[in-house]
Amino acid sequence: MTHVVERSPVFDDDPGPGIPVPVVLSSHPGRRCVGVDPEVFFPVSELGVLQARLVCTGCPVRVACREWATATGQDGIWGGTTDAERASQRHADIAAAAGVGAVAA
């Protein structure tokens, strides 16, 4: 059974995006985003993107964070990736699963 909470892993006091966030993201004691200004994860420049990525570097829930953000269509930096990067990866994964671009032998 998966337990979920209605809060974002970045904003402890925010009700979140309305999509249940897995407990492993919202309450993991080693997550690197604890105490970081939430604005860091919604950068307006390339320098801001790099600063957010630095926060995510070495985070023990980075992969789960990125996967959740990809699956739920989140904006901002999650798991060290931008929303555009996650969308691009998601499209590539869908195409690969559908066999698009596969070469017949």
Please explain how this structure is put together.
The protein is mainly α. The chain is 40% helix and 4% strand. The chain has a two-stranded antiparallel ribbon. Helix 3 crosses helix 4. The longest helix has 16 residues, at 83-98. The radius of gyration is 15 Å and the shape is globular. Residues 1-9 and 11-15 have low confidence and may be disordered.
Name the descriptors.
mainly alpha; disordered N terminus; single chain
Quick structural overview:
The chain is mainly α and 105 residues long.
Cα-to-Cα separation, first versus last residue: 43 Å
Please state how the strands of the largest beta sheet are arranged side by side.
Answer: 1-2
Could you give a short account of the major beta sheet? 2 strands, antiparallel
Let me know the number of strands.
2
- Taking all residues together, what is the mean pLDDT? 81
**N to C succession of SSEs:** EEHHHH
In the predicted model, the low-confidence regions spanning at least 5 consecutive residues are: 1-9, 11-15
Taking all Cα atoms into account, the compactness measure Rg is 15 Å
In quaternary terms, these chains amount to single chain
> Which descriptor suits the 3D outline?
globular
The level of helicity is 40-55%
Number of helices: 4
| Alpha-beta content class | mainly alpha
Query: How much of the polypeptide forms β-strand, as a percent range?
Result: under 5%
